[in-house]
Amino acid sequence: MVDVTREIERKYEATEDGCLPDLTGVAEVAGVTDQGVVTLDATYYDTADLRLAADGITLRRRTGGDEGWHLKLPVGPDARDEIRAPLSDTLPAELAGLVRSRTRGAELVPLVHLLSERHVKRLVDAEGVPLAELSADHVTARRLAPEPGEPVRWAEAEVELAEGGAPALLDALEPHLADAGLRRSAAPSKLARALAQTDPDRRGKRARKQKGPAGPVKAPKERRERGIKPKKATAGDVVLDYLRRQVTAIVTLDPAVRLETPDSVHGMRVATRRMRSAFRSYRGVLDRTVTDPIGAELKWLAAELGVDRDREVLTARLDERLGEVPVELRLGPVAARLRVWSHARRGGSRERLLGVLDGDRYLALLDALDALLAAPPLRPAAARPWAEVIPKAVLGDYDRLSGRIEAALATPAGPDRDVTLHEGRKDAKRVRYAAEVARPVLGKPAKAFAALMAEVQELLGDHQDSVVAREALRELAVEAHGAGESDFTFGLLYGREEARAAARERELPDLWAETSRKKHRADLEA
User: How far apart are CA 456 and CA 510, in angstroms?
Assistant: First the structure.
């Protein structure tokens, strides 16, 4: 079993004497209690090429105080999720899985040993409730691989919020820490500083005498986020920047999916769809003989991620609609019938999805995505200025959507229109994603155009959800009838969904008239 906690802290450069200021009376701090000194003995693990450190991740085995295996994943400024597992001789399988999207098949080896003498003071409010911990650390770090090195030493301080603490407290404390001679550390973690100061490529003596903090370890060149300079960017630069962000999202969300973090499955699924859409929209930039096979694998991954997602969304919709029905119109065990129906259609997705994420096919896909970014299969159009290629691609997708909407509006209400509107929803999503690619260079016009497409997508999505809901409600009614239960309520819900879909169809012409104004197209072309 693992335990997950959100850690919010700030690190500071400290003087060698390790003196900590008295913060009593600052903000809501009413008192400070001395917790004494503890020795922390930790060995940090990483791949030989520092894949975890490149993404700001730390994995350690600690003895002494707070013993156990600790994995820290960055989630924002000053914040990391710390996943803990009991102390053992070998890395727990749960933690190994959480870093697999980074390590792939590479071995995790002991990299750095850190010994810290920590003096801790607890900041409490007027009622004695802990607000934060202020600690001073005297750190000794030694590189273990690729070969043992000489130790380096430094002093630092940190303030860590108590569980549920307000981040604003960190801002309130900062000026007082600065007055006491503490300044913010440039290194995001002890490991980052230790790696930089014990780097075998640097002269050891010079590193040991360094007074300031070492900077963070940098990711390999092909894995870093790259900003786009609109005036100089080519079409290839823009498309690859977008693809790079989607790959980062997939890799970053992998541990969140494993930990069942809310919306993580949806987020990873969206990233796969955005990549596939970009491959199709910008086929003039990237060679399809390379991207098509990768797109097929992304489609497979999206399907695996959606094994239970679509069922859960549908069940939530039906639950919501049922809640709108007056009690006197709920005839029979309709809520129980819905729960049984939903449970029977579970795909066993938790174990199945973990199997997918641990499987060779998924890891091969991640490798293929890295290879694509490292050596992109660019076509001649990729070298042209973005303004000659990107808007044209967005508008090409838009013209396709326009034809689909016009065909749907000309089709009588019924199954054929439903199918056409469903295809239109997918086309609207494709235009939206194509416009997202353009946003770093086109700015507000691309953002506004994507927002318009999102409105169309939402309307058509709600219409399609109604189509799917009606199919489910008919199935539920048949099951209820066959069991000798009343099917009245399911019929009522069916009629309401039918009316909702009809209302969305009536709204479409006005929305499309606004969306297809020449001004929006002109803004994109400008």
Answer: 11
Q: How far apart are the first and last CA of the chain?
A: 56
User: For residue 220, which of 427, 38, 437, 48 has the smallest C-alpha distance?
Assistant: 48
Tokens describing residue 350: 């938790």
CA proximity to 253, closest of 425, 378, 98, 461 = 98
Please check whether residue 242 is in contact with residue 358, taking contact to mean a CB–CB distance below 8 angstroms: no
**How far out from the chain centre does Cα 436 lie?**
17
Residue recorded with tokens 């309709």 = 334
Model pTM score: 0.86
Q: What would the two tokens of residue 523 be?
A: 């803004």
344, with CB counted inside 10 A (0-12, 13-18, 19+), is exposed
With b meaning 16 or more CB within 10 Å and e meaning fewer, what string describes 159-170?
A: bbbbeebeeebb
pLDDT (tens digit per residue) in 373-384: 999 999 999 999
| Side chain identity, residue 430 | R
DSSP secondary structure letter of residue 92 = -
* Model confidence pLDDT, tens digit, residues 75-114: 988 899 999 999 999 999 999 999 999 999 899 999 999 9
**Beta strand ranges found along 220-310 (DSSP E):** none
